[in-house]
Structures are given as C-alpha cells and as structure tokens.
Write a structure and sequence with these properties.
Layout lengths: L1 H8 L10 E10 L2 E11 L2
Length: 44
C-alpha cells in the first residue's frame, strides 16, 4: 500500500461542479453488480 499512498500524495485537488445527484439501488444479479436509479435531486 505504500506506493499507492505515495502516488496519491502527488495528486493535486480538483473541483467538480454537479448539476444533480442520484440515490441508487445496488444489487448483485447475474454474477455482476447492477444498479438502478431510485431518486434524483437537482442541485443549484
């Protein structure tokens, strides 16, 4: 884990602007993860 921590310490912070967020239902079917939107909230 040490190399990962060292690599991450070199990364500059970033700013992200989001227009909305979603709450999802996460499940595991057919031997893989699947999700579907449950609710969305517009921002700004």
């Amino acid at each position: 884990m040490k190399p990962v921590g060292e690599a991450l310490s070199q990364v500059e912070p970033a700013t992200v602007r989001l227009d909305s967020v979603e709450l999802i239902v996460l499940d595991r079917d057919h031997r893989m993860r699947e999700w579907e939107p449950f609710a969305g909230i517009p921002l700004g």
